[in-house]
Amino acid sequence: MKQQIVSEKKILVVEDEKEIAELLTLYLGNEGYEVFYFTSSEGVLDFISENVIDLAVLDVMLPGSNGFTLLREIRKKWFFPVIMLTAKIEEADKIHGITLGADDYITKPFHPLEVVARVKAQLRRAGTYNTSLSKEEEYYNIRGLEIFPERHKVVLYGENIELTPMEFSILLYLCQHINQAVTSEELFEQVWHEKYLGNNNTVFAHIAKLREKLHENARKPKFIKTVWGVGYRMED
Ligand code: CA
User: Whole-angstrom Cα distance, residue 34 to residue 79?
Assistant: First the structure.
């Protein structure tokens, strides 16, 4: 587990278009973040191994490799938020990225301030601003599934479960509304803080991933139940 001592957040940007990379470095730098940018995936994993990164912004289309491959490698070991930059907005790509553990997407062309806003939102969600763990923390225990909101920690039958910030937010929201049916729309708007446009694939893909991590039986989930035609319900 990484320990945060300094407050300056380190952001990794992997983007082969130098202009975009420099623009992001400038805007994020103005917000007080320390930005490291790479114009290809080469050397990125070594860099992450040697430095504590708080968030990564990855371009999907990179020379010689792509952002998804890099994302897959990152997710084998690290759980900081990852925002993908993509030129085309294909639903299949989006689902693919979410399955691999991306937390958010930004479609090109974008305004750098949009990236700044999404970065802030993800860091808030990841709870990396919260460095004080001394006070007694409230937590949920649902038949052996323990959720610690402040530490963003999830334990299942005594074993740590690593969740991405989005997955964690979904799980926490369902816990906070235990035994209530939560619609996909509500979940999307509460977790993503965006207007729901009637497409529940994003929510569905995250729930599927979450269930997989909780070792749920797809046909008889113990924790996150499907409420047909409505959404989902966490049962105590
Ligand atoms: Ca590119």
Answer: 19
In the predicted structure, residue 225 carries a pLDDT above the cut 50? yes
**pLDDT tens-digit profile of 79-99?**
899 999 988 666 777 777 777
Residue written as token pair 């990855």 = 58
Domain residue limits at 218 = 134-234
Q: Which helix (H) or strand (E) holds 217?
A: none
Tell how far the Cα of 61 is from the centroid of ligand 1, in angstroms: 4
CATH number for the domain that contains residue 89: 3.40.50.2300
Query: How high is the pLDDT of residue 40?
Result: 94
Cα(93) to centroid(ligand 1), Å: 15
Whether the full predicted model's pTM is greater than 0.70, yes or no, is: no
Centre of ligand 1 to C-alpha 29, Å, is 21
Residues with CB under 5 A from ligand 1 (ion): 16, 59, 61
- Answer for the pair 119, 11: CB distance below 8 angstroms, yes or no: yes
Domain count, the chain: 2
Residue 61 in tokens: 């289309």
Going by DSSP bridges, is the β-strand pair 181-183/153-156 parallel, antiparallel, or unpaired? unpaired
